[in-house]
Design goal:
The chain has 3 domains: 131 residues, Cobalt-precorrin-4 Transmethylase, domain 1 (3-Layer(aba) Sandwich); 104 residues, Tetrapyrrole methylase, C-terminal domain (Methyltransferase, Cobalt-precorrin-4 Transmethylase, Domain 2, 2-Layer Sandwich), CATH 3.30.950; 54 residues, no CATH class. The chain is of the alpha/beta class and 311 residues long. The strands form 2 sheets. A 5-stranded parallel sheet has the order 3-2-4-1-5, sandwiched between helices. The longest helix is centred in the N-terminal third of the chain and has 15 residues. Strand 2, helix 4 and strand 3 form a beta-alpha-beta unit. The protein contains 14 helices and 10 strands.
């Protein structure tokens, strides 16, 4: 659908003929009919919205949103006027059925959240799952995501990461969740609220160890900030204001080869240390390479060289 939609979009911008515009708008609405669009919206800076998102929001029949007041401000900024319907965690079941009926009747629906990509730590997946089950077309409109923005700017490994969203509100449940995440061989990404940020940072250090950490605050906004260091170093630096993303380095990297030891041994010695701790040779080499800022191929080349020198 996209090539035709964008072709129509170009014609709409270039055309000065009212009849032609009307015809093309009608054709575009036909293309959109019966489609559920998952539209990412800005997480702070309104200029981060995509041209395609604006196009879809301006053409759909109805926009489902968490807070109609919040979304109305975004639409007003871009001079878009469309019917809004609230869709949030407290009315999700009821609203989902209403929206599905409209989609099956041929209407187009855009789902947005207050900020970022819908269904990522926000309501939406139940509606999307049911739409797919009923053979309703679902089309994501990519755009802003706090988790991806924070990860991109963190400077921690990004080849593999786990998005854990918001941790549970009860301490016991948080400890249980962290226990499950402790040995994952990935960078960890969390969302956190200002009133809990210091408590959660302390619990992360207690449960997961003193790992490398980046706390991203107020992403894309005027007071955007990245705080970097070990968990023990940054706890007192974080001010409980704004919205937070926490990025933690992989556990196996920190637990298996502490920072002060990372460069004190040969590649071969470091790999052997980690295999004795229970890792496979492949896993051990991957962790050593990551700890030393090497590519896996370079670490492997050095390993083979060291082994050859011992023969």
């Amino acid at each position: 659908m996209e090539p035709l939609v964008w072709s129509l979009s170009i014609h709409l911008i270039q055309s000065t003929n009212g009849t032609q515009l009307s015809t093309q708008n009608s054709e575009l609405r036909t293309l959109l009919a019966g489609t559920l669009f998952i539209v990412a919206t800005p997480i702070g800076n309104l200029e981060d919205i995509t041209l395609r998102a604006l196009k879809v929001l301006g053409q759909v029949d109805v926009i489902a949103c968490e807070d109609t007041r919040h979304t109305r401000k975004l639409l007003a900024h871009y001079q878009i006027s469309k019917p809004l319907i609230s869709y949030h965690e407290h009315n999700e079941s009821e609203r989902a059925e209403q929206l599905l009926k409209r989609l099956l009747a041929g209407e187009s629906v855009a789902l947005v959240s207050d900020a970022g990509t819908p269904s990522i730590s926000d309501p939406g997946y139940r509606l999307i799952r049911e739409a797919a089950r009923r053979q309703i077309k679902v089309s994501p409109i990519p755009g802003p995501s706090a988790a991806i923005a924070a990860l991109a700017g963190a400077g921690l490994p990004t080849d593999s990461f786990t998005f854990a969203g918001f941790l549970p509100s009860r301490r016991g449940a948080r400890r249980a969740r962290l226990s499950m995440l402790k040995r994952l061989d990935t960078t960890l990404v969390f969302y956190e609220a200002p009133h809990r940020i210091r408590t959660v940072l302390a619990e992360l250090k207690e449960e997961l160890g003193d790992r490398d950490c980046v706390v991203a605050r107020e992403l894309t906004k005027i007071h955007e900030e990245f705080i970097r260091g070990r968990l023990s170093e940054i706890q007192g630096l974080v001010q409980p204001r704004g919205e937070f993303v926490i990025i933690l380095s992989p556990g196996a990297l920190d637990l298996a080869e502490p920072r002060h030891e990372a460069q004190s041994s040969s590649i071969l010695e470091a790999v052997e240390t980690q295999t004795k701790a229970g890792m496979t040779r492949k896993e051990a080499l991957k962790h050593v390479a990551r700890a030393r800022g090497l590519s896996k191929s370079e670490a492997y080349r050095l390993l083979i060289k060291e082994e050859a020198e011992l023969e």
